């Protein structure tokens, strides 16, 4: 008989001849191991993803353990995921992600979202613009359109919309999003030092100054 103590914040898997036999939670356990053939693997419940190879093995051969002791994340090709640690957004997961975590109280939560709409809601945009670094934020395009400017939204190179001053967010997944900032204020254009030769062979030096602004941005850039 072998006695094993599993500390709080740990979980263990026993194996014999390479096959997992038991999952042990915190506490004292007595195991029948007369020939000392059992091995014990300890895992810390630290909100780190389980090794991919082990995760696939558990899903295939010990689905009951996965259901009871794990958080299983399997994203479709048109979904993204959000991992929250202690109710704070920690990571954004791209489509087709597969992750397995040991349950650790209620400290880790997962939300899934369809990519049917590529627009990021304003609350999440504000989080992504905050000082806290969120892993996976490169999946988002955040664009700020200043006052007296407009933003020309392009998806896969095609003009889709004209954005008024404000902050906008789009998922950079499955499609290429771009926002080109256009200044709509009155602009000055100067052409200086142009020399013109008249019919009577007199050289004139001309300086040209013009003021202009966009009247119809979409029409201008569509042509």
Automatic annotation (TrEMBL):
Task: Report the residue ranges that make up the Band domain in this protein.
Answer: 144-217
* Organism this protein belongs to: Providencia rettgeri
Q: What is the lineage of its organism?
A: Bacteria, Pseudomonadati, Pseudomonadota, Gammaproteobacteria, Enterobacterales
Q: What is the protein's given name?
A: SPFH domain / Band 7 family
- One Pfam annotation, family name? Band_7
Q: Where in the cell is it found?
A: Membrane
**What's a single GO CC term here?**
membrane
Membrane topology summary: Single-pass membrane protein
């Amino acid at each position: 008989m072998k006695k094993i103590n599993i500390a709080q914040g740990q979980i263990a898997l026993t194996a014999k001849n390479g096959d997992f036999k038991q999952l042990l939670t915190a506490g004292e356990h007595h195991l029948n191991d007369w020939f000392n053939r059992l091995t014990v693997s300890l895992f810390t419940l630290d909100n780190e993803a389980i090794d991919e190879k082990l995760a696939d093995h558990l899903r295939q051969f010990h689905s009951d353990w996965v259901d009871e002791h794990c958080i299983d994340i399997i994203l479709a090709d048109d979904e993204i995921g959000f991992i929250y640690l202690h109710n704070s957004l920690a990571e954004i997961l791209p489509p087709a992600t597969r992750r397995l975590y040991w349950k650790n109280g209620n400290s880790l939560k997962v939300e899934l979202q369809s990519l049917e709409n590529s627009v990021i809601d304003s609350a999440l945009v504000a989080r992504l613009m905050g000082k806290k670094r969120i892993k996976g934020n490169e999946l988002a395009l955040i664009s700020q359109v200043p006052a007296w400017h407009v933003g020309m939204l392009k998806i896969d190179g095609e003009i889709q919309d004209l954005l008024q001053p404000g902050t906008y967010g789009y998922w950079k997944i499955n499609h290429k999003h771009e926002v080109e900032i256009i200044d709509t204020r009155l602009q000055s254009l100067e052409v200086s030092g142009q020399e013109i030769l008249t019919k009577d062979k007199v050289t004139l030096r001309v300086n040209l100054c013009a003021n202009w602004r966009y009247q119809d941005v979409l029409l201008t850039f569509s042509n």
